[in-house]
Amino acid sequence: MPLYVIERNFAEQLDPESLDRAGIKLVNDDVGIRWVYSFLSADKKKTYCLYEAPNPEAIREAAARLGIPADEIVPVEQLDPVAP
């Protein structure tokens, strides 16, 4: 499945402890995407999330349903530090 990096900008600091991970997974499963992992910026107002998704529209749909931003969606390819 294609990989995407999503940049999310939040108006307020994000509290990782308050995330409804189960609710996010339910919506993601419903639209056919998978949250692989995320990085949180030092100011806690921006995340960079790696997702598997069939297309950017599925990511936008999940974000809209969850009420979270999806400011930039960039298709990416995985590179490993050691060549196979």
Provide structural commentary:
The model has no long low-confidence stretch (mean pLDDT 96). The protein has helices spanning 21-31, 56-66; strands at residues 3-9, 34-40, 46-52, 72-76. Helices cover 26% and strands 31% of the residues. The two termini are 20 Å apart. The chain is an alpha+beta fold. A four-stranded antiparallel β-sheet has the order 2-3-1-4, with helices on one face.
Layout of secondary structure:
Layout: E1 3-9, H1 21-31, E2 34-40, E3 46-52, H2 56-66, E4 72-76
Antiparallel strand pairs: 1-3, 1-4, 2-3
Helix pairs in contact: 1-2
Model regions low in confidence, pLDDT < 50 over at least 5 residues? none
Under the CATH scheme, the architecture is 2-Layer Sandwich
Give the overall silhouette.
Answer: globular
Structural class: alpha+beta
Average of pLDDT: 96
Main pleated sheet: 4 strands, antiparallel
Residues in helix, %: 25-40%
Q: Can you tell me the CATH class?
A: Alpha Beta
User: From N to C, what is the helix and strand string?
Assistant: EHEEHE
* Helix run count: 2
User: What is the number of E strands?
Assistant: 4
First-last Cα distance:
20 Å
Strand content: 25-35%
CATH superfamily: ORF SCO4226, nickel-binding ferredoxin-like monomer
Q: Going across the biggest sheet, name each strand in turn.
A: 2-3-1-4
CATH topological fold name = Alpha-Beta Plaits
Number of domains: 1
- Overall radius of gyration: 13 Å
Short description:
With 84 residues, the protein is α+β, with helices and mostly antiparallel strands. It has helices at residues 21-31, 56-66, and strands at residues 3-9, 34-40, 46-52, 72-76.
